[in-house]
# Entry
Amino acid sequence: MTGFHVDAGVLAAYAEGGLADVDAWSVEAHLDRCAACRTSIASDASTALVVEAVAVSLGGRLPTQGRVRRATGWRRIRVLVGAGPAARTAWLLSVAVTGVLTAGLAVSPTVVPPWLLLLIAPALPAVGTALSYGPRTDPLHELIAGTPQGGLTIVLWRTLAVLTVAAPVAVLAGAVTDIGPPGLWLLPCVGLTVLTLALGSLIEPAYAALVVAGAWAVVVLAPPVGGLAVLVSSGPGWLGVTAVAAVVVYVRRERVGRQPA
Amino acid sequence: MTTVSVDGLRVSYGKRVVFDDLDLELGVGVHGLLGPNGAGKTTLMRVLATALHPDRGDIRLLGHHIGDPSALRQARRQLGYLPQAFGFYPRFTVREFVEYFAWLKEMPPARIPLAVDRAIERVGLLERADDRMKHLSGGMLRRAGIAQAIVNDPRLLLLDEPTAGLDPEQRVQFRALLRELGLDAVVLVSTHLVEDVVAACTRVNLVDGGRLVFTGLPDELMAAGGDGDSGDSPIERGYTAVLRGARTVPR
# Structure
């Protein structure tokens, strides 16, 4: 040990090879005798540079990490909504057909009768929702039923996805049929969907959709006094149906989407 | 508290009663669930996985009473479940499949990407992580299923026939994984391969006819068998001896 220590700047220059030969020799001679200076050279900034260089070159040699997605809020919504069941294709096809029918009616009312659109368009989201979950149509039903986000949460996400596609088609259909104000076509859409969810907590969702769609067909094919327009325009009636169904869904939420196969 | 307790469980499908008054206690470790076909192994798994509501019974999972909605949610976050038969969305990649369940199990988002890859790595599927599920073989599908079950580092892991479809080498690797998982979690493995039990389980439970007819160490099950019992190994002889004994006792 000596009382003298090499200046930190000189030490750094030595470590990076930036000293003239003569100076380097004398620093080396000192390092031979002084443990304190040897230690400080080890933790010098140049070491960090070396580590970083190693990390970069090592990172280049590792296998590529694959398509890892950052876990953002958007990613969560995309995953939860986008994870579609197998029945999606069939349902999207029927939405497309309804769109075509709507276009047909717009061309001429003799090609497509208006009541046909009223029969199909509001029932589509109900059927689509029921097909999107449940032991019969969702291959992952059993696995999802045991997770905290399974059940009502995931069913509502899927309902939202279905309504996003089906509701505009229904409004469009309403616009070309002249049965009530087009915007009000949303009421039966939502009403029948929530009704299906409520019934789906008692019986299998696929059957619930059948029952609801069947009842709707009866109502449309045997129209009440005042014609089909009453069906669409009776706002308080639909709000009542929706509210009652929503209460049932809430009370029986542990059964929505968690029915045993 | 990391235990599972079931008290007075009754489960029935319509008129057929599967369990009537079943009691079960599980602590940390790997528990084998043995029993003949139709004994109720899968039903018990589904009840513990909270996928099937029992008619009656007091069930506590990891200290949470599953009758209480918020406790049930807590329990479900710490649960991993692999059913005997499970479907998949064909267009999902393995990584998307496991990620989907990480979200469904409400994992903290910051942990998800790493946890997903770690789970896939632990079942040895990392090289196929970006392949679509429909292109996987049966054994790979089962391993992807195991990966989704362990992605949240569950404290209660339920595996129904996890070794079905695995080749002998994969089965050995899987047993090693089981022993690792059983260090700090309750792991219940149903199987009818008794070798799996000897190799990986710290305790054995045997169900038959809706009753728990044996619970104890694998060694104790082996000791129950005598030379006269049918079976090719000590544990098989013990298994048949216990079943025969349980069936001669009038209910």
